[in-house]
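Question:
Now give any protein.
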Amino acid sequence: MEEGSDSSIQVLRESSADKENVSSYEPPNKKIKVSDVHADGKHKLEDRLSDILCCAVCLDLPKTCYQCSNGHLMCAGCFNHLLADARIKDETATCPNCRCEINRNVCIRNLAVEKAVSELPSDCAFCNQKLPRYQLDYHQRELCQERPCSCRYSRIGCHWEGPFHEIADHESNCAHPMKTGEEVMGALELIDTQQQEEQKLYNDIFSLLSFEKITFNDLQLKPFRTDDFITRLYYETTRFTAFNQQWVIRAKINSDHKNPTHTVNRSLSYQLVVKSKLTAPMMMHFLALSGPFGGIKMKSKIYNFEFTGELAETEYLDLPIDSAECNKLLASKTINFRLVMFLVTK
């Protein structure tokens, strides 16, 4: 009996020893599960927060954040785009998540989300260093050793571009400082040609300011709909007085593009219309500016037109704004701007 029991104990020990030596004894799915928990980046706090705090439209983290009445988040660009689309379609703008109504009065800024997003880490676009988002712009502009730079002699024709840590070596060996005066003058003439248009604009504005008859009006473009079978959005001001005549401004989107909602690049164009009956021609210079209540990021562009009894309105002229600014204006109930007019006296 003792021999039998000893042999059975020996068999059990050998079998247990064999199980310890067999690598497949531990269930493989358990090993994979444990290793995945530590390897999966989604279990990091910042990644989980990024999924929660992202914009409901573009899925990117918002710098400026709006929320609907149910708390769904949208970045400022997507929020303006949704409102602009609704304005063009003559529909009510809705949240892409819960379909509740969104507008300037209902949606509010979420400052807590904006501050939380600014603290989340993000990779530098040049050196891949992880930094809090509020430090990222300054790092990429001033501190990053991999940020792209141009040679200090670019004004005289050097086209070298490279990382910041290589610029000292390049400039010490750059051949452009040793060029002849004729070669340097050729490069400077090219730069001067590119700046002539901007300089001409400033000179023209200063010249117009010396005119005898100048007036300006702070105007408000309001949205309307055409009476066509397919209605189109357009804008118009109320009548205003300038140089003893009655005028209006009309504006339209993308030069009557068939469906402006199908394009990302949007623009506004406007025309100046005289409503009074003219007895003599009027040569007019005019330009649109951002008024005291408009806040439009607009470049200056001067137009001129001679109004007569037969020619009472100009062509539609480009309002010098970019697409993002156009969406911002379309998202507003009205568009506020200043029109400056100069009458040429003969």
